[in-house]
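Hello,

I think I submitted the pantoate job twice by accident. Can you confirm which output corresponds to this input? Input:
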Amino acid sequence: MIIFKKAADIHNFLATKIKENQSIGFVPTMGALHEGHISLIYKSKAANSLTVCSIFVNPTQFNNPLDFEKYPITIESDIAMLEEAGCDLLFLPSTDEIYPKDFIKINYELGHLETILEGKYRPGHFQGVCMVVERLLRIITCNILYLGQKDYQQCMVIEKMISLRNMNVQLVIAPTIREVDGLAMSSRNRRLSKEERQNAIVIFNSLMNMKSKITNNSIEEIITEANKMISEKGFEVDYVELVDCQLNPLEKTNHKNGIVALIASSINNIRLIDNMTLINPVK
Ligand code: PAF
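Support: Only one job matched these inputs. Its output is below.
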């Protein structure tokens, strides 16, 4: 695996590969890699001749300074995992490479995506995500961008940013990878104590419970039950929401746009999110 630290170097390297008609897959990350990230590397390798991963803990997307400070840095094991997975290139930039002095900040018109769910609880977060992903995509010119469904709203936001900025890249959203007991893999899981880790399964269990009840119970009932299940395990619930697959409010009678359940809750300042499609959209 070749490691690049300078934006110009990886950009120029990729330019020669594009001239040779190689197809490039890109997996952006903030490090602290787990099997969820590695599944994206495998997906990219199966479809492209070159796979690029980036590791950059982006300060502009953290609205909570404590979360940024505590974000796990495990660069050596990240590199080992990427090498083992057969990743071709790693971009490991400094903050100055991503945000040089002449960097021009723009405002992305994200509409309702910015004010609901994560947007409501993490003001400015999605502007920071768009800022870094656009910058990364300008440096790492790729054919396909790979993201995980665990960050459902982030996927929708990046899809919108790609269209707003007329970027020529295909977005592939890959399924959430879970631990054996169902907990969605996340870099934040490693901050949980043993007991918190055990209790965190409640997030997955409540999603499964909602899925089993969606056809026979009211939306209000299943949301109330999920809130109760999660709080009983000591988690503070930010939201349990049911929306359609484009994150619009549900219509009362017509579920042809599908139903997704999304949950965010925290314990001891460790915030976990997860989601599940309860009803698939009608194609
Ligand atoms: O999902 C993440 O790890 C980050 O939000 C991303 C997409 C790498 C941007 O910093």
